[in-house]
Design a protein that fits this description.
By secondary structure, the chain is of the alpha/beta class. It has a domain at 75-191 and 199-296: Spore Coat Polysaccharide Biosynthesis Protein SpsA, Chain A (Alpha-Beta Complex), CATH 3.90.550. It has helices at residues 3-22, 101-109, 136-150, 165-179, 197-206, 258-267, 277-288, 311-316, 325-336, and strands at 75-78, 90-95, 116-117, 120-130, 153-159, 185-189, 193-195, 215-220, 223-224, 244-245, 248-257, 301-302, 319-321. Strands 1, 2, 3, 4, 5, 6, 8 and 11 form an 8-stranded mixed sheet that branches. The protein has a 3-stranded mixed sheet with strand order 7-13-12, covered by helices on one side. Strands 9-10 form a two-stranded antiparallel sheet. The protein is globular. It starts with a helix and ends in a 6-residue tail after the last helix. The structure holds 2-acetamido-2-deoxy-beta-D-glucopyranose.
Amino acid sequence: MSYSRHIVIIALGAVAIFLYLNLDWKKPHMNPPQPSRAEVSSRPAQAGPPAETVAEPQWEDPGPYHVAYPRKYKYILDHTETCKTVNPFLILLVPVGPKDIEARGAIREMWGKEAVVRGQLIRTVFVLGVPTGADAQQQQEKLRQESLEHHDLIQSDFHDSYHNLTIKTMMMLEWLNTHCTQVSYVMKVDSDVFLNIDRLLTLLLDTGASGQDYMTGLVWWHSPVLRNPFNKFYMPWNVIAESEFPPYPLGFAYIMSLDLVEKILKVSPQIKPIYIEDAYLGMCLKRLGISPTDPIEKELFLVDPRHPLSSCRISRAIAVVTTSVAQMRSYWQRSREPGEKC
Ligand SMILES: *[C@@H]1O[C@H](CO)[C@@H](O)[C@H](O)[C@H]1NC(C)=O
């Protein structure tokens, strides 16, 4: 055999062993000792002395699977009247990156523009962290101007990045908890989602959405913890010992009653935040003993449908993940055309 074939065989062997050690094969001896609270191990990802014997430093490095929360983050931009002088029935919170200017502009013209639907006041705010990189200062200056012009940005001083989404969600909850007491419902909507506001209000007003302990969306009841290290959402055993996450609505669009905001914030210090934000909320819900609620109908929340959707499906949906701003616009326009759609 040639030298290079040896190398290939050794490399394949190494990959096989790596996968064997990490894949989710039910191997009880590989389970770390069960933590006292079943859903999460609070021990750090790195091997080390047991957590009880070491005083955790205040700003411990979160490592690759957790995020730097809680910390003493401050709000840098918060020029919105929402929940200060205006108390909406429903507040739409849209996590965005500093550079998502096009999406913010489109949302402000479309579903974010709706102020009163079926007699209920609705407000949209965008939630973001601080820009990083070479042009961070220019970006921040643009954000400051955008905030003065539109009064709908809430910015907190953590580094805005995909990995830090859980921080964004928790800061959003903290902001709601400090400012909003009169709001009934809170919805988190991603900036690539077409939102059908009329349908949403129908759900909240007519179909017995309970105003307490209520969280709905596309609920993932049995979401596996992915053990393949090449997967984007890989989670090793020593971070999450269970093979499934507790049930949670997928992060692109979920609705909760305002009371849950405070409850989730209250339990979150007991559960070390992982970087998968929707699964983390599921872990908090489980600790609270609260189950998410399935939507009353199928097809209300569409995460990966075959585009383009028919006008009938658009009119029946509440939230649809789109593939472009142009598509979101087209769905928005079609949803506003009068007449029977189905
Ligand atoms: C997440 O935010 C924290 C706090 O700002 C920062 O220290 C960290 O570098 C950020 N992580 C990523 C991956 O951006």
